[in-house]
Design a protein that fits this description.
The chain is mainly beta. The protein folds into 6 domains: 2-173, Immunoglobulin-like; 181-276, Immunoglobulin-like, CATH 2.60.40.10; 284-374, Immunoglobulins (Immunoglobulin-like, Sandwich); 382-498, Sandwich (Immunoglobulin-like); 505-600, Coagulation Factor XIII, Chain A, domain 1 (Distorted Sandwich); 606-686, Immunoglobulin-like. 2% of the residues lie in helices and 49% in strands. The chain has 3 helices and 58 strands. Strands 1, 2, 3, 4, 5, 6, 7, 8, 9, 10 and 11 form an 11-stranded mixed beta sheet that branches. A hairpin with an 8-residue loop joins β35 and β36. The longest helix is centred in the N-terminal third of the chain and has 7 residues, at 118-124. It is elongated and about 125 Å long.
């Protein structure tokens, strides 16, 4: 089993937590088992259980041995403890307790000893153990490179003395509590008509457990929302009938909340049910994963969803551990999606069908399919630490490179080498030019011109920076960083499915900078990501008042609006991109740099060339009134014979007739716009006899 260093584990704090159980704290004698949904002082991952154990004070500190209410998720290879206290002023994540247990599964039976005593940890942070309450989290990781998958929570109390000398001498033993399991069944099992009764039944083992069951619905972004009031447990069973669920698919759970200190909280696996509206036909979705069981990290995994009935059209969203990773259109009852970017560890894969015609067919979700992703090996030597990426996003063409910082130095050697492993390159990786050396804590290295190494396929990449001796090339250890490329050049330091891809909007005004009062202005916005779907909103700030000028849908990365005549003044304008939720991967909202234009009192048309009669002035030939103006919205023409207007001759061209023989022919060109009218008269031309 791998043990994380303190710096590594402290940076793995995971505060975004969805799901869980009903809030409640169950107090034991000394060590307190916290119900999974309780807002513990720090949440690194989804809480799946509680901690109990034996706490002993000695002159050398407080060794702690604890056990969990359930095993860590399958595939766990790394565990760690976190110790904090509001009473002692110890911040969340400040004290990291490495664990020396070699079998992670043994923590549910024999308990896991934490090899750093709490008193020593506190003293190293400039704190002392005082009487009061202390929180402990035991966190499960699939490997040394990935985010945590689960945690267990507990608290204990220090009493009997304070100080940095001998310390507390009292010894106490915390009685353990019995673990429980909760199962949920639904009747009807998969679908129910809107307004019809749906019965949720929970069974808790052991049946002697006392307490209540809170039924709930797991809602993205909200955690678990209660369905009804808590139901008292009787002989290990509790049930609730409801008719209030809205149309759609619901993920339901049951949480056992003990009434005393003898038993521990437990949460059932999620069960999905679809509430049908009138005329809707139920669907079922099943998921097959290839390869099944286990797949090497970076290899292609194909998810195939089958939707019944086959006539149901729509799309399937594929999920890993509840987070969307891709979509596929349903064709002949089947949708597929392939990915090589699954994180190592135990993954839970599922599929959710979203119908095109929601009035005819209901959505449905598949059962979860487990898949263990075997981690890829990194550089030479032992894993040292994670590298911090400088910045949230950037370009691989940046002359400064991609800067990576270390919180601890290389364990040996005087140089570093770097490789990137990602989509299509897991076997050997890409050698990346690197500058700098990790000689001290806080030192940095820079990946240089990554775009020149090889064409990059969008996706997740691991960067391995290996420390080595420049003469012997002997490796002493390696660091790991993560980058997500959302195109062949631009990268993010976090998964774009979580944070969205940034978009860069620009805006231009036509005509540029100035327009006459009474005439329209055209605003055009451009996005770097031409595949983004959504709309662009145009706003103007005039004299401190912001006015909406309109919005337009994107087409090939562009959006344009024509704004009718605006009043006199100076306008500062921006374009805001508002993405559609359907974007996959997602895009972020962005605002263009500000530009400006002036609506000015208009000028009349300006002549650019005097009027002239061109062409052969003869009966039967055609002559043209040549004139040019700027700023004209219309130009009219009039022809004269010996200074007398020729009836009906109002075009730019004129064909002399017999009456014009020997006469003086001239034209008058008149230009107009809302600000005025100007005209020009040509010199006379004699028509041949």
């Amino acid at each position: 089993m791998t043990v994380r260093t303190g710096a590594t584990a402290a940076r793995m704090r995971w505060r975004s937590w969805a799901g869980g159980a009903t809030a409640g704290v169950l107090v034991l004698s000394g060590l307190v088992a916290s119900a999974p949904a309780d807002a513990t002082p720090n949440e690194y991952a989804r809480s799946i259980g509680t901690l109990t154990g034996t706490l002993t004070t000695t002159d050398t500190g407080i060794p702690v041995a604890v056990r969990t209410s359930a095993p860590c998720p399958a595939g766990t290879t790394t565990i760690n403890g976190f110790f904090e206290s509001v009473d002692a002023g110890i911040a969340p994540g400040a004290l990291v307790i490495s664990a020396n247990q070699t079998d992670v599964n043994a923590i549910t039976t024999s308990g896991i000893p934490l090899d750093n005593n709490l008193k020593g940890l506190a003293q190293s942070a400039g704190k002392v153990l005082v009487n009061g309450s202390y929180d402990l989290q035991l966190v499960c990781y699939p490997d040394a490179f990935s985010s945590p998958t689960a945690q267990f929570d507990g608290t204990f109390t220090v009493s009997g003395g304070v100080g940095t000398g001998p310390g507390p001498t009292a010894t106490w033993v915390v009685p353990g509590a019995t673990a429980t399991t909760t199962a949920l069944t639904l009747s009807p099992a998969d679908s129910v008509a809107a307004g019809a009764p749906l019965t949720l039944s929970a069974s808790v083992t052991p049946a002697t457990a006392a307490g209540s069951v809170q039924f709930g619905e797991v809602v993205a972004g909200q955690g678990t929302v209660p369905v009804g009031a808590p139901v008292p447990l009787s002989a290990g069973a509790a049930s609730l009938t409801t008719t209030t669920l809205a149309a759609g698919t619901h993920d339901l759970v049951a949480t056992f909340v003990p009434s005393g200190t003898t038993f521990l909280t437990s949460v059932s696996p999620t069960r999905a049910v679809t509430v049908l509206t009138a005329g809707q036909q139920a669907t079922t979705t099943t998921l097959a994963v290839s390869p099944s069981g286990t797949a090497p990290q970076g290899s292609t995994v194909t998810l195939s969803a089958t939707v019944v009935p086959g006539a149901a059209a729509g799309t399937v969203t594929f999920l890993a551990d509840g987070a969307a990773i891709g979509t596929g259109a349903v064709a002949a009852g089947t949708a597929t999606f392939s990915t090589s970017a699954l994180d190592p560890g135990s993954r839970s894969l599922s599929a959710r069908f979203v119908p095109t015609d929601a009035a005819a067919f209901a959505g449905s979700s598949s059962a979860a399919v487990p898949l263990t992703v075997a981690p890829s090996t990194g550089g030479g030597g032992a894993f040292v630490d994670d590298l911090t990426v400088d910045g949230a996003n950037g370009s691989a063409k940046d002359s400064l490179g991609i800067v990576l910082a270390a919180s601890t130095p290389c364990p040996g050697g005087d140089s570093v080498v770097a490789t990137m492993k990602g989509p299509g390159a897991w076997a050997a990786g890409l050698a990346v030019p690197v500058e700098g050396a990790l000689t001290t804590a806080g030192s940095t290295v820079s990946l240089k011109r990554v775009d020149l190494v090889a064409p990059l396929t969008p996706g997740k990449y691991f960067v391995f920076v290996t420390c080595q001796d420049s003469l012997t090339l002997q490796s002493s250890g390696f660091f790991v960083a993560r980058l997500w490329f959302y195109d062949s050049e631009h990268w993010l330091s976090q998964d774009p499915l979580l944070v969205g891809i940034p978009t860069v909007s620009s805006i231009v005004v036509k005509p540029q900078f100035r327009q006459d009062v009474g005439l329209p202005v055209v605003l055009e916005a451009t996005l770097d990501q031409v595949t983004a779907k959504g709309k662009v909103r145009f706003d103007a700030d005039k004299d401190g008042t912001v006015t909406a000028l309109g919005e337009a849908a994107l087409a090939a990365g562009r959006a344009q609006v024509s704004v009718p005549a605006l009043e006199f003044g100076l306008y500062y304008v921006t374009a805001t991109f508002v993405p559609e939720p359907a974007n996959s991967p997602p895009y972020n909202t962005s605002v263009s740099p500000e530009t400006f234009f002036v609506m000015a009192k208009g000028l009349p048309p300006v002549p650019q060339r005097e009027a002239a009669v061109t062409g052969k002035a003869a009966v039967g030939s055609t002559v043209t009134c040549a004139a040019r103006f700027t700023g004209a919205t219309s130009v009219g023409y009039r022809w004269e014979r010996n200074r007398v207007r020729i009836s009906g001759a109002t075009r730019a061209t004129y064909r002399p007739v017999a009456a014009d023989r020997g006469a003086a022919l001239r034209c008058r060109a008149t230009a107009a716009n809302p600000s005025g009218v100007v005209y020009r008269v040509s010199p006379p031309v004699r028509v041949a006899r």
